[in-house]
Structure formats: structure tokens, C-alpha cells
Amino acid sequence: MLDLAGDVAGRRILDAGCGSGPLFAALRDRGAIVTGIDKSAGMLELARRRLGDGADTAQWTMGGQTAVMSFWHRPLHAMTDAFTAADFRIAVISEPPPAPGARELFPDILADKPAFLCFIFFVLQAG
Ligand SMILES: C[S@@+](CC[C@H](N)C(=O)[O-])C[C@H]1O[C@@H](n2cnc3c(N)ncnc32)[C@H](O)[C@@H]1O
């Protein structure tokens, strides 16, 4: 993701689903002005611990309840159609391998998988 983002110095970035903030931290270290949001209050607390009081995070508490996450499968063409309709051009499609060390941390999940869990990244250019 960081490679795809390129030179972020001075850019304003929304880290949507920032979790505990590892990407937020890396982007901020590279000079970006980052806002992080996450629907998990627990994740935001971890992000604040990682990032310090200066971190600009938005809080979604979901009424103080533990949120059940739902996932919806979208075919690839649904995404590309939406990009095209919004006048974006796809510059890069990336399905990265697990991060170094991830196989040791999550052996049950990643043991025999050559690819990452389910993420695909797009770099879009307007107009
Ligand atoms: C796979 S984690 C990634 C966390 C972080 N970006 C990282 O790279 O470590 C996805 C995060 O998105 C958050 N999330 C999922 N759906 C969300 C939503 N609709 N609105 C806000 N945050 C959401 C989850 O709480 C979780 O922290």
C-alpha cells in the first residue's frame, strides 16, 4: 500500500479503517497529513496509543456495542464499472503478497496460500 501511495509528503490522506494505525504512522512519517477513522473504539484506542495525542482520529462507537462485521462480495467488474462511471482511470491494480513475517504470525491462515487474504488495491487517476 505504501509503495502504491508513492510520495505522500504534504498530501492530505484519509485512512479509512485505520485500525490500530500502522499505515497512519507510516504515512505520517513520510510527511502526509493523515486523518484516521475506524468503527472500532478499541482499534482507535490502540491507534491513539501508537500515534500519541496529536493523532487526528474520528470515533465511531456503534452505540457502545461490539459490532458484527458483514462482508459483501462484489465482482471485479462492479468496481471497475463504478470507477469508470466516476470518471476515474485505473493506473495500477495490485494484489500484494503477505507482509514479511505475516506467515509466522498467522500460520493457520497463511500456511499454504500464495496470495494475500482478500485485498486488492487500485490506484485511480481522475479524469
Ligand atoms: C483489515 S483492518 C485494517 C487496519 C489498518 N488499516 C491496517 O492496515 O492495519 C480493517 C479495519 O477497518 C475497520 N472497518 C471495517 N469496516 C468499517 C467501516 N464501515 N467504517 C469504519 N471502519 C471500518 C475495522 O474496524 C478494522 O479496524
Main features:
127 residues, alpha/beta, 2 domains, three-stranded parallel sheet, two-stranded antiparallel ribbon, 6 helices, 32% helix, binds S-adenosylmethionine
Describe this structure in words.
The protein is of the alpha/beta class. The protein has two domains: 1-55, no CATH class; 74-127, no CATH class. It contains six helices and five strands; from the N terminus they run αβαβαβαβααβ. The longest helix is centred in the middle third of the chain and has 11 residues, at 41-51. The two termini are 22 Å apart. Bound molecules: S-adenosylmethionine.
Helix content: 25-40%
Q: How many DSSP helices?
A: 6
Please give the order of strands in the largest beta sheet: 1-2-3
Q: SSE string, helix = H, strand = E? A: HEHEHEHEHHE
Q: How many structural domains does the protein architecture include?
A: 2
Radius of gyration, in angstroms, nearest whole number: 16 Å
Amino-to-carboxy terminus distance = 22 Å
Bound ligands, named by name, code or SMILES: S-adenosylmethionine
Overall outline:
globular
Largest sheet: 3 strands, parallel
Structural class: alpha/beta
Q: Assess the beta-strand content as a share of residues.
A: 15-25%
Unreliable runs, pLDDT <50, ≥5 residues? Answer: none
The pLDDT mean sits at 82
Number-wise, the strands total 5
List the helices and strands and how they pair.
Layout: H1 2-5, E1 12-16, H2 22-29, E2 33-38, H3 41-51, E3 57-59, H4 76-85, E4 88-94, H5 102-105, H6 107-110, E5 121-126
Parallel strand pairs: 1-2, 2-3
Antiparallel strand pairs: 4-5
Quick synopsis:
With 127 residues, this protein is of the alpha/beta class. It has helices at residues 2-5, 22-29, 41-51, 76-85, 102-105, 107-110, and strands at residues 12-16, 33-38, 57-59, 88-94, 121-126. A three-stranded parallel beta sheet has the order 1-2-3, covered by helices on one side. A two-stranded antiparallel ribbon has the order 4-5.
